[in-house]
Amino acid sequence: MTLAVIQMASQADIATNLATATRLLEQAAVAGAKLAVLPENFAAMGRSDLARVGRDEAEGVGPILPWLARTASELGLWLVGGTLPLPPDGQPQGKVCACSLLIDDKGQRVARYDKLHLFDAEVSDAQGRYRESDSYAAGDRIVVADTPVGRLGMTVCYDLRFPDLYTALRLAGAELISAPSAFTRVTGRAHWEILIRARAIETQCYMLAAAQGGEHPGGRLTHGHSAIVDFWGQVVAERDEGEVALSAERDVAAQQAARERMPLSRHRRFSAPRMASGTLE
């Protein structure tokens, strides 16, 4: 039941990023990981041609999707492919989504989650203003999928600030939650650890928080501090900056016992967002 998160400082060159991710995932596999999570924008950080990158991937001429399938199969790993730009399924035109894919150890796509909450905000660092909605379309559904290491709920970065999403994932059976991220250095210093620990505590899930950590094109600085947080809110693995493959064991019996001793789901008195076939209403 070994889990892994990958931290990178991705640049604009896709081939270089994929080579780095391969090396780190190989380390995770050697450590015995069955599931590994890559960070947000692991393959294409800071590029201005996201729509073209996404169209190429959707049309089968891009390098990222074949790499995900091949790497998962060769290493025998289930992978959460951080995020990559992809048009909505069946809609090749228009904006791409910040898409997180779950790939099984045979290289097959198991689930797709499109980031629900887009980061349109002003922060006090050098870049100041971020508007993801200029480049991305928002998703419209929650995603929970079965894996060999537990039932996985999928989220991305800015989603961490919206606890109702995590409540909905727990009520849908999540035992682990992936959170590939690229928090700014300013917001990360203020809120990153608080948020990932809070989401773990309130859902009684393991949080797999794979982050970007370093400097990127245009001088953007990300916070790093990738971590695996257990169901009790304890940080069981962490790294501040730079490239790393972190791993930790999931203790299934201890997690189940904690949920039985403190049955939060049964005690809940307010409803989470309603769902119809996974779509938020």
From TrEMBL:
Q: Which UniProt keywords apply?
A: Hydrolase
- Annotated spans, Disordered: 258-281
Cite the InterPro entries for this sequence.
C-N_Hydrolase, C-N_Hydrolase_sf, Nit1/2_C-N_Hydrolase, UPF0012_CS
Task: Provide the CN hydrolase domain boundaries.
Answer: 1-252
Q: What molecular functions are annotated in GO for this chain?
A: hydrolase activity, acting on carbon-nitrogen (but not peptide) bonds, in linear amides
Q: Which SUPFAM superfamilies match?
A: Carbon-nitrogen hydrolase
Q: Which CDD domains match?
A: nit
* A Pfam family this chain is assigned to: CN_hydrolase
Q: Which family does it belong to?
A: Belongs to the carbon-nitrogen hydrolase superfamily. NIT1/NIT2 family.
Query: Can you name this protein?
Result: Carbon-nitrogen hydrolase family protein
The species this protein belongs to is Stutzerimonas marianensis
State the organism's lineage.
Answer: Bacteria, Pseudomonadati, Pseudomonadota, Gammaproteobacteria, Pseudomonadales
